[in-house]
Amino acid sequence: MKLPDHLQEGCLIKRYNRFLVDVDLGNNRMVSAYCPNTGAMTGLSIPGMRVWLSRSHNFKNKLAYILELVEINSSIVGIHTGRANTIVEEAITDGLIPEIVGYKTIRREVKYELHSRIDILLETPFQPPCYVEVKNVHLIRSTGPSPGYYEFPDSVTSRGVKHLDNLTAMAAAGNRSMIIFCIQRSDSNCMTIARDIDPKFGLAFDRARAAGVEAIAWDCKVNLTEIVLKRSVPIVA
Asked: In this protein, which residues make up the domain named SfsA N-terminal OB (predicted)?
């Protein structure tokens, strides 16, 4: 997935609520930018971090900039959760995910279950559809139960539990269901579920796996021009 052109480099001053950050662009320019990430962003919102912003081209937005990338330990991490679905969709279209090749149609945000939409619905004649839920991952902790692992979630996510329960229902009805963890960084080798952060998500994940929901994780190559899937990594649940 290509990133917007002409990202603006800056220095993070602070993240002062879930949706807003202040960034120093240099030359006495300080801007407030939209933070497209509702999670805790543990370790990724430290004042002084090098960050990159894109320009907003939506006239309805009150803020001119959007936080896209942060740098930690010389690695660039994508924090825009809205990019994950596009990254995965492009990889499916290009046949890069061997578990889900051969489907004829790909649709995004399709209504299913009650008051829910599936991130990606894959269909082909004479086969059950494949319901794909995409989760954006960016957490690595230096301490805790699994130091150095990619982890999800980074905060309590009731929506994530609901999505897993929906996938479980689809699998029980005879459909193919899958959760894909899209990791917008590439500085670890395996992923785990952060059960200490959200025990309910951990239990929902276990129920889903027992019901036949597939789970895979891919990390990404992230630079200033694009974010693309890099390699499949094991999930140590």
From this structure: 13-79
CA atoms within 13 A on the CB side of 189: 0
Tell me, what CATH number does 98's domain have? 3.40.1350.60
CA distances from 231 to 47, 68, 84, 187, 220 (A): 31, 21, 15, 12, 7
Answer whether residue 58 shows pLDDT above 80.
no
Give yes or no: residues 38 and 150 share one domain. no
Least confident of 25-29, 73-77, 117-121: 25-29
CATH number of the domain that 71 lies in? 2.40.50.580
The predicted model scores a pTM of 0.95
Secondary-structure percent of the chain, ordered helix, strand, coil, rounded to 5: 20, 40, 40
Q: Are strands 176-183 and 214-222 parallel, antiparallel or unpaired?
A: parallel
Tokens 């959007």 correspond to what residue? 66
CB 2 within 8 A of CB 14: no
Q: Say yes or no: 18 and 98 in one domain.
A: no
- Between these two residues, 62 and 150, which has the higher pLDDT value? 150
Domain boundary among 43, 59, 78: 78
Residue 7 CB contacts under 8 Å (≥ 6 apart), including other chains: 52, 53, 54, 68, 69, 224
Work out whether the CA dihedral 138, 140, 146, 150 comes out positive or negative: positive
Give the domain extent around 41: 8-78
Q: What are phi and psi of 89, to 5 degrees?
A: -60, -45
